[in-house]
Design goal:
Number of strands: 9
Radius of gyration: 16 Å
Strand content: over 45%
Shape: globular
Distance between the termini: 33 Å
Oligomer: single chain
Order of helices and strands: HEEEEEEEEE
């Protein structure tokens, strides 16, 4: 199976399994689609490239309570200007703050499959995704934000350069 096909298969598997794990009785959030563009290798360690990303976050979450919005299943795909592709699935934990809850801070984590294309060798196909996002509700259904992400194999392979990205994002409720 090609690496790109493997990345798509991992993302599709996470998308099909994750919604089945959530409790629809506590749905308080809309599902979100986030699109972003920015810089791959934001800390200039290897090879700075352009990056685009799309991420879907389910509205229902695991472990939701009155004070915790839950772990929201997410799936995403990113591509660089050199043909690298990363498909992933995982969970996000959104927290609102500020007057009226207009601001949102969202840490996220997941696993996925990476295809190098003509880009950076990250040491293998299996990679981990970590993200920190902050966004502001510009409209009732739209958020403008910044998203800092890290992709790494966590030392599973002998070679593990890891990579960081910084993206400007727009999220809209579905």
């Amino acid at each position: 199976m090609s690496r790109r096909l493997c990345a798509a298969a991992v993302a599709a598997a996470m998308a099909s399994v994750s919604p089945a794990l959530v409790s629809p009785a506590m749905a308080a959030d809309d599902a979100l689609l986030t699109i972003g563009a920015g810089v791959w290798d934001v800390n200039f360690n290897y090879d700075r490239q352009g990056e685009v990303r799309a991420e879907y976050r389910h509205g229902d979450g695991l472990f939701e309570t009155d004070s915790f919005r839950g772990l929201k299943p997410l799936v995403g795909v990113m591509a660089t200007s050199r043909g690298s592709v990363f498909g992933y699935g995982g969970f996000a934990a959104p927290f609102t703050f500020g007057s009226g809850g207009d601001w949102e801070f969202t840490p996220s984590a997941g696993i996925g499959a990476y295809s190098r294309g003509n880009g950076l060798n990250l040491g293998g196909t299996f990679e981990f995704h970590l993200g920190l996002a902050v966004s502001y509700a510009v409209t009732d259904s739209g958020r403008l934000g910044l998203y800092l992400t890290h992709i790494s194999n966590a030392g599973i392979n002998g070679y593990n350069p890891g990579e960081n990205s910084l993206l400007l994002t727009w999220s809209f409720a579905l």
